[in-house]
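User: I'm curious whether this sequence folds into something compact or stays loose and floppy. Could you predict its structure so I can see for myself?
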Amino acid sequence: MKLSRRDFTKIGSKIVIGAATGPVIIDALVKKAQASESSPDGDYDWNKHYWGYVVDTTKCIGCGRCANACKRENEVPFDEPVYRTWIERYRKLKDGEMKIDSPNAGIDGFTDDIPEEEINKAFYVPKICNHCENAPCVQVCPVGATYTTNDGVILVDFEYCIGCRYCIQACPYGARYFNLEKGTADKCTWCYHRITKGLLPACVQACPVGARKFGDLKDPESIVNKILDKERINVLKPDLGTKPKVYYLGLDREVR
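Assistant: Here's the prediction. I'll summarize afterward.
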């Protein structure tokens, strides 16, 4: 397989890293450039899709079924404080103080530890990897193990990840964690193994109130596109210029 001039240039720009850390990293860069030209196995054509995600904070009830389903589907250990998706609870008290918590990522639900009469307003905000178009995690990875697929999903290649954790530090949304068993970075993939087979991400399927929506941004009839066309949406930390592909409905200005 031939490498394009663009691929060769990208690899060459990183050779300095290889000189400092060894031939294994150089080999990983070359293999990654070659792999990037190939679509996933099977009939799925990743050039025909570009995925997006919508969270409706006005519907979320904080039940935790999404986070539970995510751990089960992706075999994320229940006995470790690591999560691919989680739910945050925001409670603004009548004295103006904002209380934010997410016990065990919301998997077990939330307890009413503050008297209702002291709360001015309360709501839940599901969080997940934003699969940004201008992703800091992709930019800082020294070996190309974190990369963006043609259909807009950011993945980690566990074979090439060297566990440096630069990407974990670079993510402004706290959406990455270190997988102790693999010795690599890990994160939400929008259940890539499912969506490439025509299925929904586990968290979307598990939500009992339809607070999570997933769809193809290249399809004008997809649920996500219909929401983006008709509703006022926001993204988290827009000032960072990361261009998230997780869009929020009813996002309160207090959310960070």
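Summary: The first strand starts at residue 51 and ends at 56. The domain at 47-256 is CATH 3.30.70.20 (Alpha-Beta Plaits).
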